[in-house]
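Quick one: structure tokens for this chain, please?
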Amino acid sequence: MRIATRLTLLLLAAVALVIAGFGYIRAHQERQRLTAEVQQEVLVLANAIKLTVEHALRDRQPQDIRELLTEMVRNPNPVDRIRIFDRRLEDISSAISDVAATTLIPQAELEQVLKSGRTIVRYLDSPARPAAYAILPLKTRRGATIGVLEVVHVATRVQRQIQEATHDQILRLSLLSLTIALVIWLTVRVSIRQPIAQLVRTALAFGRGDLSRRLVLKRRDEVGQLASAFNRMAESIQAAQAQIVAEAQARVELERQVQQAQKLAAVGRLASEGAHEIGTPLNIVSGRAEVIQKGLATDHPLSRHVATILRQIERISGIIRQLLEYTRPRRPTVRPVAVGPILTRTVELLEPMARQRQVTVQAQAPEALPSLLADPDQLQQVLLNLVTNALDATPPGGQVRLAVQPADAEAPDGRPRIQRGHAVEPSLTLVVSDTGRGMPRDQLEQIFEPFFSTKERRGGTGLGMPIVEDIVRAHRGAIEVQSAEGAGTAVLLQWPVAHAGDGTNNSMQN
């Protein structure tokens, strides 16, 4: 059984006992009042009869006494039986109605009045014939007791009044009980049951891992204090969980960086050792191919093959340069750089490639923008790399857009995302977005891995995005990639803004 139900039943039982006790006392008091009233009426009438009877006895007029008694019983007076007893308690005169014929008066009370000379008034509580009676001594002028007068009134009316009063009292107390029960039920429901139910729901939500739920109870009592303590506990747990998650992410990031460093070390050794070994023969092959190309006519059948050889040699040289650049990055020399000219220059450099691929490139930037703290060459390299990737991924008729937005601007949609680094504040966000084919989630999660490429068939080295990440991190910025299959890709660069005191030729430490 629930606490609220038990408490409600307990309070109702206590209230029922109190109301029942109060009702009993009130009924008893009402009964005493009504019986006292009828006894008083009988006593007053009996005293009046007593005076008349005593005068008639002194005048020795028994016939007058019988007529008086008969008349008193017949009249609509509260008298149903009158009897007169002598000193021997023998009935010398009486008048009795049918309703009072069976009413029994204790003989001992008649004897007591005869001996003591004191009046007795009683209420006889009989279920069949309740009655009020008075026994009075009859005296001479000298005060000697010569007999006893008995006056009886059958109190049927009083019994009916007592029953009506009892029924009325029961009805009123029942209505009062129902009202109090309703008030108790509502009070317990609002004050106890609902807060406890909310507490249980919130605790169950916590058990399912939803630590954002809070108890909203604007109360100053113990329940409100419990809700406040519960919310503080939830905040502490949420903060501890966030700290644990942050530490776990930091460990994962550290492990990734260690693995990256190990991979870079291996690649660096390979690039350093192989650059000379590959470069020298490659230069020889390139030189001989150029000699052959110069000796051939333009329409010679071998001219096309020689051009292919030279292009592939240039590609191999580019791969070697990227390897050396990735394994031995140059420390950026930062200074305040205006954003607009960098964006415009990027569009101008890649406009021929965009026209060839039938893709539109647009740059949008507000006029009043703060300068970025950047190495202009490396910032240009990052944007060229990102826009080139966007052009490669965008089909003819598509669009590539460069934009600048505040760092706290919301993401344009709910595409999956991956982020690297944490930008220092204040910062601006540079966005490079395209309407291309996008990437599935498994490719998105590997986008910053060295040598991973989504354009292997088109000769990608898989070093472009890792180099971009390194440059962004070296500038104390952050990079985020949002992409989904069929929904295009957006790369967001959070880049620190230059302060008033930032000068030129400041080298950043990684």
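The chain has three domains: 3-163, 214-328, 332-507.
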